[in-house]
Amino acid sequence: MNQATARQRQQPWRDPNAVPHVKLVNVTKRFDDFTAVNNLSLNIYKGEFFALLGPSGCGKTTLLRMLAGFERPSAGQILLEGIDMSTVPPYERPVNMMFQSYALFPHMSVEDNVAFGLKQEKVPKPEIKKRVAEMLELVQMGPYAKRKPHQLSGGQRQRVALARSLVKKPKMLLLDEPLGALDKKLREQTQFELMNIQDELGITFVIVTHDQEEAMTVSSRIAVMCSGEIMQVATPAEIYEYPNSRYVAEFIGDVNILEGHLEQTDASHTRIVSHEVGCAIHAAHGVDAAIGSTVWVALRPEKLAISLEPPADPGVNCMIGEVWDIGYIGNLSIYHVRLPGGKMITSAQTNRVRLVERTITWEDKVYLTWQPDAGVVLVS
Amino acid sequence: MTTALNRSTLRIGYVTGYAAAESSRLGGLHARLMLFAPYRITVQVLAWLGLTGRGAVILLPYLWLLLFFLAPFLIVLKMSFSEVAIAMPPYTPLVEWLEDGYLQIKLNLNNYKLLVEDNLYWSAYVNSVWIATSATLITLLVGYPLAYGMARAPREWRLALVMLVILPFWTSFLIRVYAWIGILKNEGLLNQFLLWLGIIDQPLTILNTNAAIYIGIVYSYLPFMVLPLYATLEKIDQTLLEAAMDLGCRPLKSFWVITLPLSLPGILAGCFLVFIPALGEFVIPDLLGGSETLMIGKTLWDEFFSNRDWPLSSAVAVVLLAILVLPLMLFQRLQVKQGVH
After folding, report:
1. Per DSSP, what are the bridge partners of residue A282?
2. B248 and A121 in contact by Cβ < 8 A?
3. Is B238 on the interface with A (CB under 8 A)?
């Protein structure tokens, strides 16, 4: 509980005087005529659990490999604690990486795998023994020290890979899709273990993932990437509740995007007329766009209330449609509602009472309503 | 422990399930084929001999080995216990029917005694082992960088490079060794080239020396070294080298601690593929070697064709086989060990 509050309280990115641990300045990486990372700048602070999230081919792995030193930026700088790392080879960087395939050395025992990095540093033998034992204890692999990687299960290999990349006490740990090979249950459990280990050691973690749930769970901040550029950097809650573009809104979680024209806006109110959904939309924040321009409202399914009864003012924040399909997933019921224009809207309702008979069923005429502060107006 | 147990049981379950599906599919085919008389009769004859279809399939390689390896070997073994005779074939029979009702089996151990007593044979064996061993090591030193380069070449080049390694096989081995005479002799291409470059003023005597034999063996058996090495090197996961680098290992050192140990199976396979034929090699020492070069393959040839001493040359062959079986058995054990992994 204390850890969790500490994690919430530490928000160095809000402090203008905080010195970033890692600073990327206008980093570009080109492969022949393909630009993998395009003029990207980013600050990562000490002790952060930073996630790079994006679809495959968005440049997140290239960015991670540049941090590790396997790729050199075509332009720009990567500063670790103020020192330019761009030309430092991987074997001289105080940074370690946990590989997607784990890359355990198949001809070495678990123990030797973990000791490998320390041996390269010529650490005295008794100390290697002690630190390897400690690390294996941390990842609960002590009893398997003498085994070879092929004698371990996927989850066990993943732990050994983690121990191997942490044993040198790097300034930064890079994780490339570390949990991709594990099944869902084990993945969730490991996510929390990763967070605990990170808290315990205080090392900056940078994780690459395409799994948005994973990014939301483990990270202090998320950078959503798209074709070599960062679309938004924010905490998981901010990314989810206040996406800055349709791309981010659609990438993280499910969302309904309603198109309309901006009618009026001030500091705390915005009114949009949408022909697509057939009502006026009120939002509880201002937008920076010209009156009359096309804007979009992002509405999360769980923020839409579904009802058979019309609300007091059906002209504002109310869509009328017909139930097209219902998905029951235990804790939630997902309603797919078809508006008269043909647009499909998704609404998710928590199943608060045990479901015996639905009050709302297929082909019912329903009213979807939401509060003005439930939606976000997007201009791009 | 429990998880390991569960995993192994699971795997067994999987295999049996698969095998069952497979056999039932084949069973369906079998039932349909039983309608045809030739198939039915074959099956019935085999069954009468106590053979199932599966047994017949396994029997085939055994028959092959029996016919083309064990039977000739037994003939050679038999010959090695006989005496030279002016006859056709030129040795005495092992088993003879004497007129007074005796069956005489005469085992002549003098051939083996001669092999032990005569220094010529001993030094030929030792020399052959020495030449084969050092030639194998030279082949490894030449072949490893070659295979490494091939395995690291762009993917689209690799097939072409493998083809280039195999290409010499399109020409007869004998012709290729003959070609080396033209290159290595005193007024040959190599000497002419070196003289033209001005590196030497007197032609080097290479042909008919041990150096020529080494060149011949290394050249002829290089593909047998390169191909298994390439196969193992190509399979090594490149991220392992990245991981080593990431953990502070310099590229040159990571070769010694990662690449080399992981390519050990390829090194062993290549070495055996070169060592075994090189040990009994006779064409190369005959064509490229000098009169002072003593190799067991050539000795055997001389005994057989020049001296027409079939029994003695058979004894030489039997001992040679015994020398070869030893490393082969070691190799076999190693492969079994790897099979367990």
Report:
1. A271
2. yes
3. no
Amino acid occupying residue B194: L
Question: CA B134, CA A237: separation in Å to the nearest integer?
Answer: 69
Q: Which residues contact A255 (CB under 8 A, 6 or more apart)?
A: A243, A249, A298, A299, A300, A301
Tokens of A144: 């398997």
Torsion of CA A86, A92, A93, A95, to 10 degrees: 150
What is the C-alpha to C-alpha distance for residues A269 and A281, in angstroms, rounded to an integer?
Answer: 10
Q: Pick from B77, B124, B82, B116: which is nearest to B300 by CA?
A: B124
Both structure tokens of B21: 């599906």
Closest-CA residue of A relative to B243 is A103
User: Which of A108, A109, A116 has the highest number of chain B CBs within 10 A, making it the mutation to test binding with B?
Assistant: A116
pLDDT digits (tens, 9 = 90+) for B19-62: 445 556 666 787 888 888 888 888 888 888 877 777 778 888 89
Residues of chain B numbered 114-153 and touching chain A (CB < 8 Å):
none
Cβ-Cβ contacts under 8 Å for A301 (sequence gap 6 or more): A254, A255, A256, A334, A346, A347, A348
Which residues on chain A place their C-beta less than 8 Å from a C-beta of chain B? Answer: 68-70, 89-92, 95-97, 99, 101, 103-107, 116-117, 120-121, 148, 150-151, 153, 164-165, 168
Q: How far is CA B304 from CA A241, B93, B119, B297, B338, in A?
A: 93, 17, 19, 11, 41
Distance of CA B191 to the CA centre of its chain: 33
**Can you tell me the distance from the alpha carbon of A62 to that of A73, in angstroms, rounded to the nearest whole number?**
10
Q: Is B71 exposed, middle or buried (0-12, 13-18, 19+ CB in 10 A)?
A: exposed
Greatest distance between any 2 Cα atoms in chain A: 77
A143 Cβ partners below 8 Å, 6+ apart?
A: none
DSSP B243-293: HHHHTT--HHHHIIIIIHHHTHHHHHHHHHHHHHHHHT--HHHHHHS-TT-
Q: What is the pLDDT of residues A264-304, one digit of tens each?
A: 888 788 888 888 888 888 888 888 888 888 889 998 999 98
Q: Give helix B37-48 / helix B53-65 axis angle, nearest 10°.
A: 70
Contact A299, A291 (CB under 8 A): no
Tokens of A360: 């709302």
| CA distances to A222, A245, A268 from A380, in Å | 20, 5, 20
| B243 contacts in chain A (CB < 8 Å) | 97, 99, 103-105
- The reply to whether B261 touches chain A by the CB within 8 Å rule is yes
Set of chain A residues whose Cβ sits within 8 Å of the Cβ of B258:
105
Pick the residue from chain A with its C-alpha nearest to B250: A91
The pTM of this model reads 0.77
Report how far residue B111's alpha carbon sits from residue B114's, in angstroms, rounded to the nearest whole number. Answer: 5
The pLDDT tens digits of the residues spanning B130-155 come to: 999 999 999 999 999 999 999 999 99
Cα separation, B48 vs B178, whole angstroms: 55
Residue B54 buriedness (CB in 10 A; 0-12 / 13-18 / 19+): exposed
- Tell me how far apart the terminal alpha carbons of chain A are, to the nearest angstrom: 39
Pairing of strands A344-350, A365-369: unpaired
Tell which residue, A158, A151, A140, A139, has the closest CA to residue A101.
A158
pLDDT of A133 > 90? The answer is yes
